[in-house]
Amino acid sequence: METVVSGIRSTGNLHLGNYYGAVQNFVKMQHEYNCYFFIADLHSLTTHPTPANLHGNVKQVLVEYLAAGIDPEKATIYVQSDVPEVTELYLYLNMNAYTGELERSTSFKDKVRANPDNVNAGLLTYPVLMAADIIIHKATKVPVGKDQEQHLEMARTFGNRFNRLYNNDYFPEPYAFSMGKNLVKIPGLDGKGKMGKSEGEGNAIFLSDTPEAIRKKVMRAVTDGGPTTENQEKPQEIQNLFDLMKVVSTPDTYVHFDGLYNSMGIRYGDLKKQLAEDMIVATQPIREKITDIANDAAYLRQVAIYGAAKARESAQKTIREVREIIGFRKF
Ligand code: TYM
Q1: What are the structural domains of the chain?
Q2: What are phi and psi of 270, to 5 degrees?
Q3: Would the annotation count 6 as a binding residue?
Q4: For residue range 271-320, what is the model confidence (pLDDT) as tens digits?
């Protein structure tokens, strides 16, 4: 059976981008593949969270994984820092990752632009840690959103380079994957690019948002003055709302509002009201479970311990073999 690995950074509550880009695929894939889903708490250290924030955020992602329907009996759910073998592999891969190629990564350049005062080495080698996460379980499929495609290419590069250096084919090639045909990019509500936690207040709808919060955010989403000719191309901020509608609403609803736009009869207030209600319906089953699971400390502990043991078993096997390949020998 093919192995699947994916993770989400522990930076707080999951939003619709995380859900439709990744978690929804996790839930589907757990029935068909050997799955490892983790909480990337080591990756989140690049932004220096306080100890209390770090733990709270790890817990939140764990709770939301479970609330979304990942079954710890089917998939292995674990916290990245509970599997120290990952950091060992990261160190080995770092020896064959070149600073030039790391500096050219789009997400590194974006981060440097956004936070010029915190360009740490962890940020530079972020894709190497990500490659270690994936190839430690020899995964071939990685369910992620469109924004992670380049990181997957780098994971293949580092795995292949290890293979070439030691003249073997130990690591298979991992590819970004979606159960739908294409990798998705969920837009945010600010009229610009993707939905993301760091893209500013109000841009993201969280799975844990109350219906009132969802309505408020959607009603504030950026729109324009309305179409001025029939069948005109939608500007970015309007296209974004339609793209969101495509994800959470029925095809009929989408066609209805698209028709109104094309005939210049659209009222954005109506579109937003519908979009907000459909988002509320889409997130309701998850939202309802979040509080219950969050209050069950014993269950969360049990899931984390069980998952860490399973993930370590797989990771330890890889590390044993990698050490042998590299040439670390016992005296
Ligand atoms: P992160 O935590 O930024 O995002 C987690 C997952 O959510 C997807 N995603 C989106 N998909 C579609 N539209 C959006 N607006 C959107 N926003 C986020 C991301 O594509 C991702 O799949 N580096 C990773 C975490 C990670 C990882 C890994 C993933 C660490 N190691 C190994 C896969 C395999 C990250 O920061 O994702």
Answers
A1: 3-184+296-326 (3.40.50.620), 197-291 (1.10.240.10)
A2: -65, -45
A3: no
A4: 999 999 999 999 999 999 999 999 999 999 999 999 999 999 999 999 99
pLDDT digits (tens, 9 = 90+) for 88-119: 999 999 999 999 999 999 999 999 999 999 99
- Three-class SS state of 37: strand
The catalytically annotated residue of 59, 141, 194, 272 is 194
Kindly list the protein residues whose Cβ atom lies closer than 6 A to any atom of ligand 1.
5-9, 17-18, 21-22, 40, 43, 130, 133-134, 142, 144-145, 147-148, 184-186, 194-196
End-to-end CA distance of the chain: 37
What's this model's pTM, rounded to 2 decimal places? 0.96
**DSSP labels, 64-111:** HHHHHT--TTTSEEEEGGG-THHHHHHHHHHTT--HHHHHT-HHHHHH
For the CA of 143, the nearest atom of ligand 1: 22
